[in-house]
Amino acid sequence: MAGHDDRVLARDELHGHNSQPSAFFPSRREFLSTLAALGVSTIVPSAASAAQASLAGNKPRLIDVHHHFSPPFYGKETGGRAFSYGMGDRRMLQWTPEASLAEMDKGGVECAILSLTTPAVWFGDLQADRSLARRCNEYAAQLVSDHPGRFGFFAAVPLPDTEGSLREITYALDTLKADGIGLLTSYDAKWPGDPAFAAVFEELNRRKAVVYFHPTAPSCCRDLIPSVPPPYIEFPHDTTRAVMSLLYSGSLARLRGVRFIFSHAGGTIPMLASRIAGLAHDPVMAEKVPDGVEYELKRLHYDIANSANRPAMSALMNLVPVSQIVFGSDYPFFPIGLTAMGMTNLGLVAPDLQAIGRDNAIGLFSRLKA
Q1: Mutual angle of helices 126-146 and 162-170, in 10-degree steps
Q2: 117 is in which domain, residue-wise?
Q3: Cα–Cα dist 284/270, whole Å
Q4: What is the pLDDT of residue 89?
Q5: Please, are residues 258 and 204 in contact by the beta-carbon 8 Å criterion?
Q6: Which pLDDT score, from 0 to 100, does residue 24 have?
Q7: CATH code for position 98
């Protein structure tokens, strides 16, 4: 957009180039040589060893806002329902804090903001889901305490249970000092702009909370194409549905205090933004989006997990300024180095790499400003 053309990827650089490494998991040599060539080793340091980093005068600098964890009791308490999409269940069940820290050190991450992946803590049992949210949040808070400076966390709440969610927001933010609240893009057949969730969002707005959305597959669309797992298509589309729900319910215009983060470069929002804005001339819609569609989309934050490639980043950076983009890895589903290396292949200038990799997150989380 106007005002940051110099930061946007040049059009001729987007054709005929493959931004992903030749292998799905980049080698350490490829990762380090790419960083050295672009002169950003002070942003993403050597992953070879702590001693090597020390010799170079560097330390891990990235802040990962899309980093999953799984408490040891989580899989058992959910009775096998927690990992129901046929992807990544083994990785989540085998997750440990030590594995995260080792991957963070290898990938140059100083601090990871932990969150549960879908379906988080809502399974339709009111009391059990409230208890699960509490236990998961206390477990995450203990990790933060045990590893100072390495972890933060988005607290889980048992939406669509309004009373339980309000209670957990109070406890998580006031007592556990969570960095924000983690939500899913939909709950059964309802998206975040639904009036059923209004009380929860009003409280988050009052607190000026950071709200992180992780995508899921809504009940309507989990088996649309039986041979295609929902994370491939439905997750990014549900992110778009969540944004649209907040937009056209008037929630984004009303909830000025909430700082929203959406995963995976906003799903399909960057590609559809102009279409959405062009169709938004209905007077009823204009009342709900008085400042315009693009204004609202530009003030949201977007992580780049699984999106650090030229097509996705070109679309995103032509929609929003660099100040709204944050680093995310989607670990343990993907190695941190995949996104870290992808960032360095985008032709971005050093200040933009610094902003995306670190500075923008520091602006969102008070824990990181100390």
Answers
A1: 20
A2: 61-369
A3: 24
A4: 66
A5: yes
A6: 37
A7: 3.20.20.140
Summarised one tens digit per residue, pLDDT across range 280-314 is 677 777 888 989 899 999 999 999 999 999 999 99
- The total number of structural domains in the chain stands at 1
Q: What is the C-alpha to C-alpha distance for residues 119 and 237, in angstroms, rounded to an integer? A: 16
Q: What are the distances in angstroms from CA 112 to CA 115, 154, 243, 352?
A: 9, 10, 24, 20
Residue 321 has φ and ψ, to the nearest 5°, of: -70, 160
Neighbours of 67 (CB within 10 A): 27
Instruction: Say how far apart CA 58 and CA 249 lie, in whole Å.
Output: 47
Question: Burial code of 315-328, b = ≥16 C-beta within 10 A, e = fewer?
Answer: bbbbbbbbbbbbbb
Query: 344 φ, ψ to 5°?
Result: -75, -10
Q: Is residue 218 part of a domain?
A: yes
| In-domain check, residue 43 | no
Residue ranges of the chain with pLDDT lower than 70?
1-60, 79-89, 280, 370
Please count the other Cβ atoms lying within 10 Å of the Cβ belonging to residue 265.
Answer: 29
What is the pTM (predicted TM-score) of this model? 0.83
Give the separation between CA 180 and CA 208, rounded to whole angstroms.
Answer: 10
- Contact indicator for 332, 91 with CB cutoff of 8 Å: yes
Contacts of 192 (CB under 8 A, 6+ apart): 183, 185, 186, 201, 213, 242, 245, 246, 251
Q: With respect to residue 277, please indicate whether it lies within any of the assigned structural domains.
A: yes
Report if residue 1 sits inside a domain.
no
Q: Nearest CA to 32 among 111, 112, 106, 99?
A: 106
pLDDT at 82: 57
Cis peptide before 332 (omega within 30 of 0): yes
Closest CA relative to residue 211, chosen from 250, 253, 245, 255? 255
Vertex 123 angle, CA 75 and 178, to 5°: 75
HSE of 74, CA atoms in CB hemisphere, 13 A: 30
Angle value at C-alpha 63, between 60 and 65, nearest 5 degrees: 150
Helix (H) or strand (E) holding 137, with range, is helix 126-146
Cβ contacts of 319 within 8 Å, gap of 6 or more: 1, 266, 269, 270, 273, 294, 297, 298
d(CA 365, CA 370): 10
- What pLDDT, on the 0 to 100 scale, is given for residue 229? 78
Query: How far is 213 from 319, CA to CA, in rounded Å?
Result: 19
